[in-house]
Prior knowledge:
With 201 residues, the chain is mainly beta. It has one domain (29-199): Sandwich (Jelly Rolls). The protein is built from 1 helix and 13 strands, in the order αβββββββββββββ. The strands form 2 sheets. Strands 1-13-3-9-10-11-6-7 form an 8-stranded antiparallel beta sheet, with no helix packed on it. Strands 2, 4, 5, 8 and 12 form a 5-stranded antiparallel beta sheet that branches.
Amino acid sequence: MALSKIQAESMNLADTYAFSGTVTGTPDTSDMKLLLNTTISSQIAEFDISSTYVNSSYDTYYLDATLLPASDARLGYLRVFVGGTIQTGTKYSYNNLNTDTGQRVFDSGTSIIRLSYNSTGSASGEGFTISGHFQNINNTAKPFCFSGFSNTVQTDAAHVGNIILGGFNPADRSDVVNGIRLLFSAGDIASGTVKLYGLRA
C-alpha cells in the first residue's frame, strides 16, 4: 500500500531537536526526599531528630527505623519537640492495635505515643521496626499526628504486628513540631537505623 505524502514525510523527521530561549514552568514538588539516613552503632539513651530535619520545609514526614533495646522486655516510645523543647506533659493520645490478636491498648492525656503493643526482646534479630507518617507538623489548626505500623520481635522470638495511631490532643493543636525523639520505656537503645523523608505537598 502506498504511503501518503504526510506519512512519508513524518517517517523522515529527525529524532533530535534543538531549542532556544528560556524554559519556564513550575517544577514537580510532589516528591519524597531523603533527609536523614543514619546508623546507631553505640548504645544511647534515646535518638533525637532535630529541627535541622524537622522544620517548616515540610508538613508531612515519613519515618523508617529499626531499633534494638539494650535490655529485654521494652516498649517503643515516641515524643516530639516544640520550640526546641521535648514534650513530656500529658498532651499525647495513642491507640495501638495488635494485628495478631485484635487486642488494643490506648490512652489519652499521656506523656508518650506507644509504638509497640508487646514488649520487644534484646537478642540478635529481636527489637522492632517501625514505619509511618508524621502529619500536621506546622499546621496550627489541626493537631500533630503519627500513623504507622511496627513489627515487634518479642523475648521469645515471636513476631507481633502493630497498627499505631497517635498525636497531640486537640487542645494542643497550635503547637508546631520541630523535632522527634525515639526511645524505649526503660533502658537504652543498643543499635539501630533511622531514615527520615520529607514529603512535599
